[in-house]
Write a structure and sequence with these properties.
The chain is mainly β. The protein has one domain: Beta-grasp domain (Ubiquitin-like (UB roll), Roll). It contains 1 helix and 5 strands. A 5-stranded mixed β-sheet has the order 2-1-5-3-4, covered by helices on one side. A hairpin with a 2-residue loop joins strand 3 and strand 4. The longest helix has 8 residues. The radius of gyration is 13 Å and the shape is globular.
Amino acid sequence: MTASGSSGTVSITVTLFAELRQYLPKGQVGAFQHSLAPRSTVETVLNDLGVPPESEITIGLNGELGNRDNELRDGDDLQLFTPMQGG
């Protein structure tokens, strides 16, 4: 649980895919930096972006499958996907 700098914030990289791109901050395209309070979770990021709590999301955290409860650390790479549809 490291915090960046003396401001006590955690900075992560967030990438949204498919339909989740509608939640990109205004003016952003592709991956973006997001600052959070220490001990924040993936759920915190989803709330910050306005993603509805009932949304089905696949979470990638540092190249591994993650979940909404994962606590985020400075420098983490968070990728958010909508589930793949088969047919």
